[in-house]
Amino acid sequence: MGETISLQEIIKIIKKRLVLIIALTVIGCAVAAGISFYAITPIYEAQTQLLVNQKGNADQVYSMQSTDTDLRLINTYQVIITSPVILTPVLESLDLDLTTGQLAEKISVSSKTGSKVVNIRVEDPIPGRAVDISNTVAEVFKENIPKLMSMDNISILSSAKLSENPSPVKPNKLMNIAIGAVIGVMLGIGLTFLVEFLDMSIKSERDVEDYLELPVIGMVDLIKEENQKRFSLNPRKARRG
């Protein structure tokens, strides 16, 4: 037996269980807010920028060849920055109780295509430590790159600084609450239709037709309460009539 449901019936079902949907939405928002504000550790970010540029004499002419060399080296530099040869001195300098692998997970290195600027981003639960790691990585890299690559083309463009009121980059509380609301609405609607379709009680003539596959040829309406009282108080009068 095939069953179809119209848009009007869908709206009617949702209206019928609207309180349930709203309740689950509120619960979803509350759970997401609780996790975001109290369960997840805030993460702060610090960024230091390096400039990759060939150094030469004052009368040296700027050439496309040197620019191309710098750009090709950036990919190599990105790998070197997160290597143990750079991170080990950083750990020793800051006296961090971390392995080079754990420290590397906090660091991301990036650069835009065609740009000589390399961005070193560090994420850490402690904002001051994020700043220290970012700046120290840049300093150690700048000091060691001439020995590693026999080139001196690194300068620090901008250092990371600790603001008076640092704001965490993670978690995104508003986004998490919005996700919690969406999940709550989805659960509410899903549970609404599940309860509705599991309810096998007969409520209308259409239900009779659907379940028995027989046409309805007549209906007995409900007797109003006032008529019911009249018949029960005057049974003889009712029979005479």
UniProtKB/TrEMBL annotation:
InterPro entries: Bact_polysacc_biosynth/exp, GNVR, LPS_length_determ_N
Position of the signal peptide: none
All residue ranges annotated as the Tyrosine-protein kinase G-rich domain in the record: 143-194
Source taxon at top rank: Bacteria
Lineage per the UniProt record: Bacteria, Bacillati, Bacillota, Bacilli, Bacillales
PANTHER family associated with the record: FERRIC ENTEROBACTIN TRANSPORT PROTEIN FEPE, TYROSINE-PROTEIN KINASE
TM annotation in the entry: 18-40, 174-198
Descriptive protein name: Capsular biosynthesis protein
Domain Polysaccharide chain length determinant N-terminal stretches: 3-93
Keyword set includes Lyase: no
Membrane topology: Multi-pass membrane protein
Keyword Zinc: no
Keywords: Cell membrane, Membrane, Transmembrane, Transmembrane helix
Subcellular location, record wording: Cell membrane
Predominant location: membrane
Family: Belongs to the CpsC/CapA family.
